[in-house]
Design brief:
single chain; alpha/beta; Rossmann fold; 2 domains; 8-stranded mixed beta sheet; 40% helix
């Protein structure tokens, strides 16, 4: 039996945790380890069967503390590596899990096109986006998810852009499991459950984790974790609230958009929806590629396929696979 502590690698802590400033990432890490150890025990996975990838930022340190097969990759490129790893595991019929941990800047700014490509391919990857609404590691610049009008060191007169909606982006790009939850202690049970469900899902699962940065985000400065939690709980609503009377006959990909618009029209303000927003079953690019490879082999054989490729390279016409 694998326990949570078995998955921890000793390394210096770099997240803020002093003077009443407690980074929301700590509780996320705790719930992640709990969900992962349960998942590994259920499917009899070893630590070599789980591959963790992170990008750059405060979230990039996450894989440093995981005693698994981990890669701390370059800024914005975690999705590319994860997609390649997932493809090779599918081809080689390897069991296990591939997960990515990114911040909102790493995933939605420099890495957005790569993130979109990963979702579009529906690669079997669990992508966890820790959204604290700011570039925290580099002292508080405006990020893609920073609120409109918020003054930061890179936008001293206020941010002019609307923040990116991570859930809408993930659903629109093709991810087949999309959820949002926070790392606040009161939502620990929901967070753990969502993470476990994301691990179980076959295809690209995206979980946006709203997490407080009390050090660099101007909205949070001077507030302790309990104050921030209270503000979040008062301004968020579980999407399940609408399930009984709003979503009859509605497809999963429209569920979030309708609930978001309905909540704003009824309450007169933007409400942060949370919970599982979207889930569909769909074959991944890796599965389709393996099926295609198998069909070609069965129709033409290894030797004939090689000959056909040579003919194609020589510009000769060949019969297409029917």
């Amino acid at each position: 039996m694998i326990e949570d502590k078995d998955l921890v690698r000793e390394a210096p802590e770099t997240w803020c945790a002093g003077g009443g400033k407690v980074c929301g990432y700590f509780n996320f890490r705790k719930q992640f380890l709990s969900a992962l150890s349960e998942y590994m025990n259920k499917y009899d996975l070893s630590k070599d069967d789980v591959i963790g990838i992170s990008g750059i930022g405060c979230s990039g340190r996450f894989t440093v503390w995981q005693d698994l097969v981990t890669v701390h990759t370059t800024h914005g490129n975690a999705p590319n590596l994860a997609q390649g790893v997932a493809l090779m595991r599918e081809i080689n019929k390897k069991k296990g899990l591939v997960y990515v941990v990114s911040g909102d800047g790493d995933a939605i700014a420099i890495g957005r096109s790569n993130f979109e490509n990963l979702c579009h391919s529906n690669a079997d990857v669990t992508y966890l986006i820790l959204n604290n609404g700011i570039y925290a590691m580099t002292s508080g610049q405006t990020a893609p998810t920073t609120g409109q009008g918020l003054k930061t060191i890179s936008a001293p007169y206020g941010n002019l852009e609307e923040p990116w909606d991570v859930v809408s982006l993930a659903i629109g790009s093709g991810a087949t499991f999309v959820a949002r939850v926070s790392s606040y202690p009161k939502e620990s049970k929901l967070l753990r459950g969502i993470l476990y469900e994301a691990f179980e899902h076959k295809g690209t699962s995206v979980v946006e984790v709203i997490s407080a940065c009390p050090t660099q985000n101007p909205l949070n400065k001077g507030k302790n974790l309990l104050q921030l939690e209270k503000e979040y709980m008062g301004g968020s609503l579980d999407i399940k609230f609408f399930d009984e009377y709003l979503f009859s006959g509605i497809s999963s990909n429209l569920r979030y958009a309708i609930a978001k618009d309905y909540a704003k029209s009824k309450l007169g303000k933007d409400v942060l929806l949370k919970g599982r927003m979207h889930k569909v079953e769909k074959k991944s690019y890796s599965q389709l590629l393996c099926e295609q490879k198998k069909n070609v082999k069965e129709s033409y054989g290894e030797e004939k396929l090689s000959d056909r490729i040579k003919k194609l390279l020589n510009g000769k016409k060949v019969e297409l696979l029917q």
